[in-house]
Design goal:
The structure holds two protein chains of two kinds. Chain A is mainly α. Chain A contains eight helices and no strands. The chains are: A mainly alpha, B mainly alpha.
């Protein structure tokens, strides 16, 4: 049973991933990305990490890729890209090197350091066993790791404020805006 | 935890029960849609002093069936500039989430007097819902965020301007109201302590005072209902279609059964959302057993509550004029989201008070204090932004 589910999800992931890089239309790429994300969500469900699966779909498929699509539609870049044009010289060889390096790293991790990559030593290991995994995750997040959690949320707020400040393009004196922004 | 059906491993019976349950759920929704379309047309006709469909079958009951057959046999048009693959994919992307969400709704089962709402079928025990994932309500949010894709891609892939405008409006609206939807669900989860829809229904079993409508004090229910109406793109939030401005919105270029599928998805979503509201706030299938067999009454109560909501949605459509786009965004971002945040904090503090055994009055008082402070902060932020926008407009003019 596990193998069947894994097989289906893995095929979905790989087909999606290939679609992302091979499709010449950006919207098709974004849709393939959704396919990959769904495959990963199925893998999470299969591992019993229901919460992660839901978050995967809500956050990545539901919000981030929708934003991608928004940008693609609003900026009108939804035409097939000319693949011959290369904006940065030497980009392709560099990409090949980085990809090969990452692949070697992943394989090495899988062979040499299985206890790291399979999560046995991870914090998440404590979440195994019976009981609702959402409740345990919540308890862990809001007790042991509450500082990391809160700092992450502050970081996100800062990012949002920064994005708003950058996007507003004030026509008044810039310094004045920054001061009022800081006062809030 | 979870459906007891899977406790004893897999065999053919389990697989069959799952299949039969999916089939029954699907039939329930499909038949529901057929009657819902008839019901909506009839009720609206009554409210507008018309007769409504009355030719096909008794009281025009078969009208929807006739329309469906007509749509299947119509010519399927595809605009020249459409993206062929995505154009064909989009209708399915809108129907699938609509049905999948219905899968987590418990439509029956006795929850009172120590029973946990399970029924026995062919030597197996199971719940009367297609699936009971431990993340229940999150599944609802996940599916409603997937529902955006159908609308968005349909508009984009048509390769035409009105659908694109409709799609951009639709996705902005759905993404905005999803936040309010999620935040008002959190209060329900706080009261239940579980995400599973089965547990949510189980804690509301019995008395009327146990319903989440009462325990979360109506406000989340109102916010959820408004946000759900906006998620459904139903009037008064139907800017997505707005036939006076956008011809037909995102499905302008669709014809024949592909258009039919969007229509189907819209009504499926209406039924599903009403069912979800009933589950979250009105105790789902809970209600008194009046006479006869115990197992029948939950189904009857559930259906009655569902019908009440469906009538409410039709009523809204017949009564309210459409929102303007900026009013829609103001209501969502400056009205519903702050209101649900304040209420969430109030409920959370009272919950903590109960857990920590604070004296009876202290919890609500502290809650009111904190929620009031948050409310004032939000109000201040809104005021500041309004005055600054005003100033900027003056400087600019």
């Amino acid at each position: 049973m596990d193998y069947v589910v894994f097989g289906i999800a893995a095929v979905a992931c790989l087909v999606g991933a290939l679609g992302v890089i091979l499709a010449s239309n950006p919207v098709h790429s974004a849709l393939s990305l959704v396919g990959t994300l769904f495959g990963i969500a199925i893998l999470f469900v299969e591992e019993g990490a229901h919460f992660l699966a839901a978050v995967q779909v809500v956050v990545y498929a539901g919000a981030i890729v929708v934003l991608f699509l928004f940008v693609i539609m609003l900026l009108g870049v939804d035409k097939a890209e000319a693949l011959e044009a290369e904006p940065l010289g030497g980009q392709r060889p560099a990409a090949a090197v980085v990809a090969a390096g990452s692949l070697v790293l992943v394989i090495l991790l899988g062979i040499r350091a299985a206890e790291v990559s399979n999560g046995a030593k991870a914090v998440g290991g404590a979440l195994n066993g019976p009981g609702a995994n959402v409740a345990k995750l919540g308890r862990a997040l809001f007790t042991d790791y509450v500082f990391a959690f809160e700092i992450t949320s502050v970081l996100l707020v800062i990012a949002v404020v920064g994005a708003v400040v950058l996007a507003r393009r004030p026509d008044r004196d810039e310094i004045e805006i920054t001061e009022t922004e800081a006062a809030e | 935890m979870g459906d007891p059906l899977f406790n004893n491993g897999f065999d053919l019976g389990v697989v069959l029960i799952v299949l039969v349950k999916s089939l029954i759920g699907f039939t329930f929704v499909m038949v529901g849609v057929i009657f819902m379309i008839w019901f909506e047309r009839k009720v609206i006709a009554d409210m507008q002093n018309r007769i409504g469909p009355n030719r096909a079958g008794p009281f025009g009951l078969l009208q929807t069936l006739a329309d469906g057959i007509k749509l299947i046999f119509k010519e399927d048009l595809r605009p020249d500039r459409a993206d062929p693959l995505v154009f064909r994919l989009a209708p399915y992307l809108s129907v699938a989430p609509a049905f999948l969400t219905f899968c987590i709704v418990p439509i029956g089962g006795v929850f009172t007097s120590g029973q946990d709402g399970s029924v026995h079928l062919f030597g197996h025990t199971t719940y009367l819902q297609v699936a009971d994932p431990p993340i229940g309500v999150l599944f609802l949010l996940a599916m409603s965020s997937i529902g955006v894709y159908g609308v968005m891609l349909a508009g984009w892939s048509s390769g035409s301007k009105y659908p694109l405008l409709g799609a951009v409006r639709a996705s902005a609206q759905m993404v905005s109201y999803e936040a309010a939807l999620g935040l008002s669900v959190v209060t329900v989860i706080l009261m239940t302590g579980s995400l599973s829809t089965h547990d949510i229904v189980a804690t509301q079993a019995g008395r009327f005072l146990d319903w989440n409508l009462v325990t979360t004090a109506v406000v989340p229910f109102v916010i959820f209902s408004i946000a759900a109406c906006a998620e459904l793109n139903r009037p008064p939030f139907d800017l997505v279609e707005a036939e006076q401005e956008l011809v037909g919105g995102f499905h302008t270029e669709y014809s024949s059964i592909r258009f039919g599928m969007f229509y189907l998805a819209e009504f499926m979503n209406t039924i599903t959302m009403s069912a979800i509201i009933v589950t979250l706030f009105l105790g789902g299938p809970s209600g008194p057993v009046l006479f006869g067999p115990q197992q029948i009454w939950p189904l009857v109560w559930f259906t009655l509550k569902l019908l009440g909501f469906l009538f409410g949605f039709v009523w809204l459509r017949a009564t309210l004029p459409r929102f303007r786009y900026d009013q829609l965004m103001d209501l969502g971002w400056k009205g519903l989201i702050p209101a649900s945040l304040v209420w969430l904090i109030l409920v959370a503090v009272i919950r903590v008070g109960n857990d920590q055994d604070w004296p009876r009055v202290v919890g609500p008082l502290v809650g009111l204090g904190v929620a009031g402070a948050v409310f004032l902060l939000l109000l201040g932020a809104l005021r500041t932004s309004a005055t600054r926008r005003h100033d900027e407009a003056e400087v600019g003019s």
